[in-house]
Amino acid sequence: MTQVKDPIKIYDARWEVSEFDDQQVARLFESTLGYARLIGVDTLVLTRDARLGCARVMEIGIKVAVEGGFRLFVCFDPISTPLSYFVAMQTSVNFPKTMGLTVTASHNPKQYVGIKYTVPTVEAIGYDCGPLGGLKKVKELYHQTDFNLEKIPGGSMTILQNPVDDYIDYTFDLAGLKSNELMGLSVVLDTFNGSAGPELYRALQKAGVEITPFRLAPNGEFPTGSPNPTSQNKMNQAMELAVQNKADLIIGIDGDGDRIVFGDQQGVFSAGFVMIPILKSILSDSDNPKPSKILYDPKVNPMALLKWADLNAGPVLFRNGHSQIKAFMKEAGAIAGAEESGHFYHQLPLGGMVVSGENSLYTILLFLKSVHENKGIISEIRTLQDQIFTSGEFNFEFADDTIRDKAMNAAIELFENDHARLTTHSENGDDLEGTVVYKGIEQQSGKITLSNDWYAAYVRTATNEKGVVRSYISSCNTQVGKALQEKIVLLLTGQFNGKQIE
Description:
Layout: E1 13-16, H1 22-38, E2 43-48, H2 54-67, E3 71-78, H3 81-94, E4 98-103, E5 112-119, E6 123-124, H4 135-143, E7 156-159, H5 164-175, E8 186-190, H6 197-207, E9 210-214, H7 236-245, E10 249-253, E11 260-264, E12 267-268, H8 271-283, E13 292-296, H9 302-310, E14 313-317, H10 322-332, E15 336-339, E16 343-350, E17 353-357, H11 360-373, H12 376-387, E18 389-390, E19 394-397, H13 401-417, E20 421-425, E21 431-444, E22 447-461, E23 468-475, H14 478-495, E24 499-501
Parallel strand pairs: 2-3, 2-4, 3-7, 8-9, 8-10, 13-14, 13-15
Antiparallel strand pairs: 1-5, 4-5, 5-6, 10-11, 11-12, 15-16, 16-17, 18-23, 19-23, 19-24, 20-21, 21-22, 22-23
Helix pairs in contact: 1-2, 1-4, 5-11, 8-9, 8-11, 8-12, 13-14
């Protein structure tokens, strides 16, 4: 079977529904399960979110898995990706050789679909990340003409009930919270018609939080556009509702529930600042004299890192990449991590396992727990946020990847001409999968110093979408940051005919 393309990306499998027919999707499952056999998997957990393309993909996966002789557990209810990880954790307690497959395309537009993977025991994999190279091995099998998944009798399917109540109870215990303990807080909860809405609403209601829901009902059409709260202006309506209802906070979450935005009536907070109350909750009972390792991606602003250090956190730079950052968390012994894209990572214990991964409800409860103890934290974060400029991720699509690469290189040259310091690798030598830019920022012996005109930037190509350059800027003030952003936008639109996208 000859294939000229495949759906394997850096962090997961992802594709537009129209790109691949049923035979090609079945081939993806066959290669996935061929890989599963190579690493000793005997049990599968298959879950989905509310995305329109999920049902077709799920049905194909069920057929291939049962015919392949695997023990299969399926949850048909649309659920969030963090809840799907919890399902895999629960299953792994009894069946340690479990692979988790979540059918989702995260924050991408409605025409996309895909699969996120975990391997025993609930470890995320990506391309060249995981046993035997993770998705690199899946891709190899996909293209291997002499590979066919052997059909073995004895396969079975068990339909699982939605374990949302177990998930909520587990997360409350993990956060050290009881029912109604967060009474007195009010939030606008904007879930962008994704799958996490009902489960988060139930959990916050249990916590005693006053909730104004917005775009709560799961709807795979995503009628108001891509379900990505981190895109520019996406949280404006939530902010308006917060003003109307005098809510303390806004919380936005993406289509599959693993990307979170926090803010107040005036706007959203950067993830780096969001980590301050989270770290206060995590580290408040710690008696470790050494700083706890906390991972951060290249977009986290330097001012936030200074505040982390004040809480006895040791910031460690690592590349973007959900699978890769979770693997590095385990390797480095980090207790938490944050990406400016709204992904937060934690150590999650269950039944003797300790999984490095996302639990968005845990992130939210930790944040709200600190705020409930001291509402002044909101104004502290707002003061910090107003001191600096953050652009949010601004993305441009080009006619093809060749023009994309020329455009990105031109943007990088702009920074070089401004005598900024550029790096493509972390201190450990890890590829940052993009170019990190620092001007007026020095780091020596773990201490960061900032000049009066500092800025930081991160420029990279999109991993899951064609012809796209992603850029992000943080700086000492709005004037410096906006001027720099305008230069980049003018360059990408004027010289390379880029089209700004969500």
